[in-house]
Amino acid sequence: MMKGVMLVNMGGPESPEELKTFLARMFMDPAILPYRKPLRHLLSFIISRSRYKKSWKKYQQIGGTPLVQSTIKTSRALQAILGTSFVVKYAFSYSSPDISYTLHDFKREGINEILAIPLYPQSSLTTTSSVKADIKKVTDKDPFFKITVQEEFYTHPDFVAFWTFNIKKHLKEHGIDNPTLVFSAHSIPEYYVLKGDTYPTGIINSAALIAEKLGYHYEAAFQSGMKRGAWIGPDVREHMKTMAEEGIDDLVLIPISFVHENLETRYDLDHELIPYAKEVLGIKNISRVILPEADLLFVSMLADLVLKYP
Fold first, then answer.
1. Sequence spans of domains, the chain
2. 94 near 22, Cβ under 8 Å?
3. What's the pLDDT score for residue 120?
4. Which of 101, 127, 215, 230 could in theory staple to 97 by disulfide, Cβ–Cβ 3.0 to 4.6 A?
5. What is the rounded distance in angstroms from the CA atom of residue 151 to the CA atom of residue 115?
6. Are 27 and 47 in contact (CB under 8 A)?
7. Of 307, 239, 298, 252, nearest to 73 (Cα)?
């Protein structure tokens, strides 16, 4: 019997109208806004209508969403490695094709045993658990499916090797000898940590595993938190300010919570954070490790996860 593999990522909009839908879906997710459904409906409507124009300008500045095509290329590369024993598809939480559509695509092909791999190295209630909830909505209504969801994979040797290789490559290409590595991850509200979210621990452990292989001083911080409410820290902006005051002047940013380039790497880091570090903080030497598309080490790690799947 043929088995399926479904790679799941957040998704990304490719037009202003898609961005409206993307934002509405995101803020309707109880994992993102933990309020009752009527309030989520209202807030998602207000946020998506009020925010999409400003957000679309950011996407335009980075040349559109890179995440969708990167996920598709990763899916194709994984299919090439696995061959004909598995069928590999992809799905997005907040854009098309969504999880329900892709699962029913598997059903149309008669494939019911599926390994879902959320492309989030460090599990969170806001990401991996959200994917599980979307899958459950389908499986609760349809007993056809037998789905296993892959948990966080940041400890996998090939994931550590993926980052170690790409950091070394970046240092060599830029002639950097003794950097401070700044592992930056998307922040989440402290509310989730109080509910038992292990994401901050995963980020810290992940950074430690990679830095240990490289032997450089490192810091871990969080980015892109919203202004309202308490978000986990330290905030990368404030943390860099402290480092600048301490005379640390050779920083390399590593977006540890992502596996594909996206708005938060190309805009939040490249267009906002790095110029802020140079122009406001006076940090002369700061650069960022770019996430490669369909990287062989990363795709090989995914293949290993699949082949270990019973």
1. 3-153+296-307, 157-288
2. yes
3. 98
4. 101
5. 11
6. yes
7. 298
Per-residue pLDDT tens over the stretch 35-54: 788 888 888 888 888 888 89
* Two domains, one topology: 3-153+296-307 and 157-288: yes
Q: 310 burial class (0-12, 13-18, 19+ CB within 10 angstroms)?
A: exposed
Instruction: Classify residue 83 by its DSSP letter.
Output: G
Which has the closest alpha carbon to 124: 193, 177, 171? 193
Measured between alpha carbons, how far is 162 from 299 in angstroms, rounded to an integer? 10
216-253 tens-digit pLDDT: 999 999 997 766 668 999 999 999 999 999 999 899 99
Say if residues 182 and 221 touch (Cβ distance below 8 Å): yes
Q: Which of 258, 262, 259 is nearest to 270 (CA)?
A: 262
Instruction: For the beta carbon of residue 46, count every other beta carbon within 10 angstroms.
Output: 12
Residue 287: name the closest of 160, 188, 169 by CA: 169
Asked whether the beta carbons of 222 and 231 are under 8 A apart, the reply is yes
Per-residue DSSP letters for 196-243?
A: T--HHHHHHHHHHHHHHHHT--EEEEEE---SSS-B-S-BHHHHHHHH
Tell me if 267 sits within 8 A of 62, measured CB to CB: yes
Task: Please indicate, yes or no, whether the overall pTM of this predicted structure exceeds 0.85.
Answer: yes
Q: Report the alpha-carbon distance of residue 188 to residue 167 in Å, rounded.
A: 25
Tell me which H or E stretch contains 19.
helix 16-28
Sort 293 into a burial class: Cβ within 10 Å, 0-12 / 13-18 / 19+: middle
Give me the pLDDT at residue 1, please: 75
How many Å is the Cα radius of gyration of the chain?
20
The helix or strand, by DSSP H or E, that contains position 186, with its residue range, turns out to be strand 180-186
How far is the CA of 189 from the CAs of 45, 181, 263, 283, in angstroms? 21, 24, 19, 29
Place of tokens 């019911």: 112
Residue range 157-288, CATH number: 3.40.50.1400
Look at domain 3-153+296-307 and name its CATH class. Answer: alpha beta
User: What angle is formed at CA 293 by the lines to CA 287 and CA 295, rounded to 5 degrees?
Assistant: 95
